[in-house]
Write a structure and sequence with these properties.
Helix content: 40-55%
Largest sheet: 6 strands, parallel
Number of domains: 3
Shape: globular
Strand content: 15-25%
CATH superfamily of the largest domain: Nitrogenase molybdenum iron protein domain
Mean pLDDT: 96
Distance between the termini: 81 Å
Oligomer: single chain
Length: 431
């Protein structure tokens, strides 16, 4: 059911690249559809937004009914079971505590000549948070996207969530109440992204859009980038587990399942130097899979995108990890700290046998919005810094400007930009 690879074979590199090759690039028909929807909402505003919402979500809503009031959010919070509310609040507390430590502050220093140089940190004015709806409820996605924006100091947070067949999920709305969302609209798909990017009479235009969605949402975010900021283009979820013989094969099998149950495109990879451990995990998979509610999805995911890779040693395992650059990395080994220093590319790193990836999905504290599809090579988890921007500060006086003005003048003349040079030179001559 799940393919085996051996790092010692001649065709391993090509087999690994085939496993990692992206298959989630949108088809031309999807690109065209999204482009048409964005143009329609941009030009016709609320009228187009309502038409597409009613069409794709099988609704007969009015434009006024698309907004959910704060009172409705609080009512949803009251309706959910008390134990679930307490767990949501506990998760929110942990997520906030972690992100509080990411706060950036304005700073400045004075150089030897007396010039003041620094950086001013300011939050974005308004952000849009996309929360998936339909097949499943994702209250954790609300917490992970909204709380860092609050910590950053964003003044207004707009949440959009599709409600197919007019079915609203109390858990998602309760999470919005706990996280402190300012406005919620029951819209989704490319039309929601377009409305957030360009604004309509009902939907405020935002400065940045964050949050996961389906291929239409991801494609729309890609197309409006530049008009607004975006967090990332999220692909299918992925986990790499590096294990040695000290790991529990049942635990590892279940951690592979935890990624695979997302959807058939999810990627779950085990890397170990122990051939016997691979066989033990395979037996665990066979025994535990029938117990899973989403067994068919897990089975398809493991068959399509799963692998068990045999390596010579843990050093080679980490070399392969750095090639894969996984969204989630579990170090299910006896001494995870010994491996940490050599890891260069991973979205989130889970250290040791008790640090299950699923803990990070919900309530450990760090953000679960992570770079996928090897983008951990150059991207970071969503954080407070995604909702802040930096402005450089340069303050010169007549007594401090000489050194840098002379250098600027020389470099500008070297580039043939006379006005630049003279602009600097004017500061060298007293008024």
């Amino acid at each position: 059911m799940i393919k085996r690879l051996d790092a010692s074979t001649e065709d391993f590199d090509s087999s690994l690249q085939a496993l990692l090759s992206s298959s989630d690039e949108p088809e031309q028909s999807i690109l065209d559809t999204v482009s048409q929807i964005i143009t329609d909402v941009r030009t016709r505003g609320d009228e187009a937004l309502l038409e597409h919402t009613n069409r794709f979500d099988r609704r007969s809503a009015s434009i006024e009914s698309l907004e959910i009031s704060q009172q409705e959010l609080e009512s949803a919070l009251e309706r959910i079971p008390v134990s679930l509310r307490k767990n949501l609040e506990h998760a929110a507390k942990r997520v906030r505590e972690f992100h509080d430590k990411q706060r950036q502050t304005t700073w400045a220093y004075e150089d030897d000549a007396g010039n003041v140089l620094g950086q001013k940190v300011t939050p974005l004015d308004r952000v849009g948070v996309y929360v998936p709806g339909g097949k499943a409820a994702y209250p954790s996605s609300v917490l992970m996207n909204v709380i860092p924006a609050h910590v950053a100091g964003v003044e207004e947070i707009i949440m959009v969530v599709p409600t197919p067949d007019d079915e609203r999920n109390d858990l998602v709305l309760a999470a919005a109440a706990i996280a402190g969302v300012h406005k919620v609209f029951t819209i989704g798909g490319a039309q929601a992204i377009a409305a957030l990017a360009y604004g309509t009479e009902l939907i405020p235009k935002v400065d940045k859009i964050v949050g996961p969605g389906n291929i239409y949402v991801a494609t729309a975010k890609r197309q409006v980038f530049g008009v607004v900021g975006i967090d990332m283009i999220a692909g299918p979820s992925e986990v790499v587990i590096v294990s040695d013989s000290s790991a529990n094969p049942d635990w590892v099998a279940m951690d592979l399942f935890a990624q695979a149950e997302h959807d058939e495109q999810a990627s779950s990879i085990l890397i170990t130097p122990d051939k016997n451990f691979i066989e033990a995990v395979e037996k665990s998979i066979e025994r535990l899979l029938p117990e899973m509610e989403r067994a068919e999805i897990i089975k398809a995911s493991l068959a399509n995108n799963g692998a068990m890779i045999k390596v010579d040693n843990l050093k080679q395992a980490i070399e392969i990890v750095n090639i894969i650059a996984p969204e989630h990395l579990e170090l299910a080994v006896s001494d995870p700290d010994a491996l940490l220093g050599d890891i260069r590319h991973a979205g989130a790193i889970f250290m040791g046998h008790y640090s299950a990836e699923s803990l990070g999905d919900y309530c450990a504290g760090p953000n679960h919005v992570l770079p996928t599809a090897r983008t951990a090579r150059f991207s970071s988890p969503l954080g407070v810094y995604d909702f802040q921007k930096q402005s450089s500060i340069i303050k010169c006086s007549s007594g401090s400007v000489k050194d840098i003005a002379e250098t600027a003048s020389a470099l500008a003349r070297g580039e043939g930009l006379t006005a630049h040079a003279r602009s600097a030179e004017f500061r060298l001559t007293p008024k």
